[in-house]
Amino acid sequence: MSRNNRINPVDPKGRVSVPHDLRKMLTPEGDGKIILTRGPDGCIWIFSEKEWKNFETALRERGIGDLKNRNLIRLLTGDAVETEFDSHGRILLPGHLAEYAGIKKSCRFVRMFAWIEIWDPQRYEETVEKIKDEINYDEYLTNLKF
After folding, report:
1. Are strands 43-48 and 116-119 parallel, antiparallel or unpaired?
2. Non-local CB neighbours of 79 within 8 Å, separated by 6+ positions
3. Which of 14, 38, 44, 113 is the most buried (most CB within 10 A)?
4. Span 68-90, pLDDT tens digits
5. What's the rounded Cα separation, in Å, for the pair 59 and 116?
6. Residue 78: CB partners within 8 Å, gap ≥ 6?
7. 100 CB burial (10 A radius; 0-12, 13-18, 19+)
8. In 3D, which of 117, 86, 122, 115 has the Cα closest to residue 14?
9. pTM for this structure?
10. Which pairs count as long-range contacts for 74-77, CB under 8 Å and 24+ apart, including other chains?
11. Per mean pLDDT, which range of 20-34, 114-128, 131-145 is the poorest?
12. Per-residue pLDDT tens for 21-39?
């Protein structure tokens, strides 16, 4: 099974089933809270409660003295929504975030390191198509400590 090629339908109430392995990543015990917020590039980010706290700490450490930092914090935390999975493993995509991400009938899940991205499938394909030729893999991978 592909790790990042899962597209699930969004029901008329705005709910979507999150793939089982991604639910386990977010809430290993199956009963934790998750946080959804505006992600860059027109997607929605999902964090576990623990990773959200780490993310907030990282944002806090950047400080609020700089306008760009304050605006970034405002965008990321101002639209954040705390939720849980229902008994069917679904989440409700908040209307303001679904609208921001252009998600209507289906969404694509992309697993990142400590969070998950939810994309409108077409927007994701367009974004990847746009950036794939901009990345210099040799330059990036040469400096990667792995």
Report:
1. antiparallel
2. 37, 38, 96, 97, 100
3. 44
4. 999 999 999 999 999 999 999 99
5. 18
6. none
7. middle
8. 86
9. 0.89
10. 75/38, 76/37, 76/38, 77/37
11. 131-145
12. 999 999 877 677 999 999 9
Phi, psi of 37 (to 5 degrees): -150, 170
User: Do 19 and 6 meet the contact criterion of CB atoms below 8 Å apart?
Assistant: yes
Q: Which two tokens stand for residue 104?
A: 């209507």
Residue 56: half-sphere exposure toward Cβ, Cα within 13 Å:
12
> Between 67-78 and 49-62, two packed helices, what is the crossing angle to 10 degrees?
160
Which residues, 6+ apart, have CB-to-CB distance to 6 below 8 Å? Answer: 19, 108, 109
How many of the other CB atoms lie within 10 Å of CB of 47?
Answer: 22
- Regarding predicted confidence, which is higher, 87 or 135? 87
Give 42-53 pLDDT, tens digit per residue.
Answer: 999 999 999 999
Mean pLDDT of 124-128: 94
DSSP strand pairing (34-39 vs 81-83) = antiparallel
* Rounded-to-integer distance, Cα 60 and Cα 94, Å: 25
Contact 82, 22 (CB under 8 A): no
